[in-house]
Amino acid sequence: MNEHITEIVIFTTLFLLVSGMGFVAARWRRADNLASLNEWGLGGRNFGSWITWFLVGGDLYTAYTFVAVPALLFGAGATGFFAVPYTVITYPLVMLVLIRLWSVSHVHGLVTPADFVRVRFGSPTLALLVAITGIVATMPYIALQLIGIEAVLKTMGVTGDLPLIIAFAILAAYTYQSGLRAPALIAFVKDILIYVVILVAVIYIPARLGGFGSIFDAAEAKFAGTPAPGDGILLNANNQLQYVTLALGSAMALFLYPHSVTGVLASRSRDVIKRNMSALPAYSLLLGLIALLGYMAIAAGITPIGTDVNTVVPQLFDRMFPDWFTGVAFAAIGIGALVPAAIMSIAAANLFTRNIYKEYLRRDATDAQEARVSKLTSLVVKVGAVLCILLIDPQFSIDLQLIGGVIILQTLPSVALGLFTRWFHRVGLIAGWTAGMTAGMVLLYNIANPANNHAHFGGSAFPLSKLGFDTPMTIYAGFLALIVNLVVAALVTVVARRLGSSEGVDGTRPRDYTADAGDPEVKDDLEPAGST
After folding, report:
1. Within the chain, how many helices (H) and strands (E) appear?
2. Please, which residues have CB within 8 angstroms of residue 346's CB and are 6 or more apart in sequence?
3. What is d(CA 519, CA 94) in angstroms, rounded to the nearest whole number?
4. Predicted confidence (pLDDT) per residue in 154-180, tens digit
5. Can you give the pTM of this predicted structure?
6. Which are the contacts of 32, defined by CB distance < 8 A and separation ≥ 6?
7. Tens digits of per-residue pLDDT, 334-370?
């Protein structure tokens, strides 16, 4: 540890400084009363373009970006670049969805995607399923952020669980006190640090390694010597289907996550969302540069600490940078984990409070009681994320996010499609969710982890050979599960309509959100949907 003392001091100083900002954030853009979900969980719904850009960017580009994507390129090659096209196509894909969701939520005081489903389809049961799905899918995503901090600590020679627990406790404390304002304020520092570190890395490290030509040659030589059919610096017939379905599935899943929706609903207006959907692809350029760190680690001869491939980027920084700048780079990774982990825990807590606690346990809960329950739940969610690290042992940390994507995709028919059409019957959506989730879990259970001989939950690339095809090709498990979901939902909807069922499984009637409620030039369309 002695040789890392400079790195540890700089990392600790910046980490504590930014954590202090998290506590101070309660007084930033101060509300009259933080004891409400509108203020604690959504920052008063009053964030402008710049704050939203940093908040959503800090929410989506995380320790997953710094650690997991390069680690995947280091181990599997070109497949890891799926993160670049998926973040490019997702913004035009979801812009209209998010604008409409913001409009409806703004007018009717909705806080979560499950709130929308509850009144859109008149079904507390469907809303409960969406809420549970969001909470479960968020757990491995938070765990991924903690893995990023853990990888940095390992590289600095800091062993044991105590430092990670301390970082976890600090995160929990300022999130509890300041709510969404904390990650919104910290995101400014986090993004500036990441931009500085990456711009230095993509200029300085290749210069030391002989240029990008040498880096790609080293990566090609490594993958040529492995027996895996799906690796290499170029895609091949074995991994092209996985690449395409993974990119498309991930793009559809990204803004279904509760934390993504939370960042959007905190925006001041529809125009803020439009500007952000136009500007956020700038982060994708950064992501492409970050991904190349995996190949740089190969060229530099980096080997993981033990079997932890997530340590290759921190080790690359440790070897190539001066000690003082390595400390800055490590702080960027650590702080890059704090922002999204805070938003994710807040979003999951809001789901529990609004769609489980208030719906089933205390219907007359006041704003203050809702805020208090959300604060406590945000602490529990972080504990659940730690359990994800202990119970799920994927080959690459990115698989934690991809497994979460398989789960959250099952809410697409009710949340995203529900904003534009009332054709699906709520019974069909419940049946589709059940079928899709079951299929997703079965597929994930049958994906092995070759790195440590685990037979189950080893990632999200499902071998087509297990469906009887004579091929080594794989496909994203979430894509198959979503197809099952949509087919079952459509079939059951047809049957329900032919049987003349107009009332929901809960005896309540749906609402019509087909208009862009909240936009000045359109009306608030909330007429009962009747039998249609």
Report:
1. 23, 2
2. 40, 41, 175, 179, 180, 183, 259, 262, 374, 378
3. 18
4. 899 887 777 777 877 888 888 888 888
5. 0.87
6. none
7. 888 888 888 888 999 999 999 999 999 888 888 888 8
